[in-house]
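[step 3/7] inverse_fold.run input=structure_tokens len=295
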């Protein structure tokens, strides 16, 4: 069953006490509904924010979902967000037993990948963390630094300044990845979703939403939105009516952008044939959509 409450806790371990606020300046998030905003406290001032680290250069992010607590190194976290590295093997039997460790990609990228060192330098100039800049997708994007800056800006907004709950965002991205047949998008977000504590049934359920009994009516509306944006770039009135009852206007904006952005990202990695990064497992259980092609 889908969990209704989620808690996210953040800790920072400053590299230089003089350069950063003291650790006591930050405190744990307060839980709200899974489709509502998370909040944090900074001293006595509580501000409504999305799910993002309190400091960009923090070294540890602690994420608690239900009773499950996972400590993610910040660099590992940002790399996982775009699939630059594989996480530890899944605890979930369906994921652990069914991961395909080798990509089905057989062709070379048609878009040249910027060398790693050059990508790191370009990323630093653009304010992009090295783990992002040196992933395969960004090495392809960095052939156009201005376009990469825009791409990264939206990733940053939807991941670290978000209003939509991470679980909802990931379900939508997974569905887009499956519908587009994008190995890069789908397989990276399978691993990332598991690290967020999303059950394997819900992660792999996006392959056949009607057959997944763990989804709520709101979940199904979100997945319908992903389908509709993928197929005709427009949401139907019936789907929108359900979403309007479950989400605030700022969340609705994000949902539309999530669908459009990862549809665009899937088109880029498939067309440019960007390969999975080393160590990232391919299609779970060896099952892939009919429209998948080597990237």
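[step 3/7] decode complete -> sequence:
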């Amino acid at each position: 069953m889908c969990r209704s409450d989620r808690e996210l806790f953040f800790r920072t371990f400053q590299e230089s006490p003089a350069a950063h606020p003291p650790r006591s300046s930050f405190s744990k998030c307060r839980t709200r509904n899974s489709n509502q905003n998370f909040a944090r406290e900074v001293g006595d001032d509580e501000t409504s924010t999305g799910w993002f680290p309190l400091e960009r250069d923090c070294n540890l992010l602690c994420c608690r979902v239900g009773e499950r607590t996972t400590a993610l190194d910040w660099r590992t976290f940002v790399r996982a967000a775009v699939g630059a590295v594989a996480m530890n093997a899944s605890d979930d039997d369906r994921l652990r037993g069914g991961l395909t460790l080798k990509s089905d990609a057989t062709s070379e990228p048609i878009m040249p990948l910027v060398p790693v060192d050059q990508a790191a330098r370009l990323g630093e100039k653009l304010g992009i963390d090295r783990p992002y800049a040196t992933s395969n997708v960004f090495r392809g994007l960095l052939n156009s630094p201005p376009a990469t800056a825009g791409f990264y800006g939206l990733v940053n907004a939807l991941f670290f300044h978000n209003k939509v709950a991470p679980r909802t965002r990931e379900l939508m991205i997974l569905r887009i990845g499956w519908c587009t047949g994008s190995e890069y998008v789908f397989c990276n977000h399978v691993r990332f979703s598991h690290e967020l504590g999303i059950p394997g049934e819900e992660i792999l359920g996006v392959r056949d939403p009607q057959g997944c009994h763990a989804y709520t009516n709101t979940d199904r509306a979100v997945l319908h939105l992903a389908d509709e944006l993928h197929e005709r770039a427009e949401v139907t009135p019936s789907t929108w009516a359900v979403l309007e009852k479950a989400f605030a206007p700022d969340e609705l904006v994000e949902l539309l952008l999530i669908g459009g952005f990862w549809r665009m990202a899937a088109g880029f990695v498939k067309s440019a044939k960007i390969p999975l990064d080393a160590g990232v497992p391919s299609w779970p259980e060896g099952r892939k959509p009919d429209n998948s092609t080597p990237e």
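[step 4/7] annotate
The first strand starts at residue 7 and ends at 10.
The chain has two domains: 7-80, 87-286.
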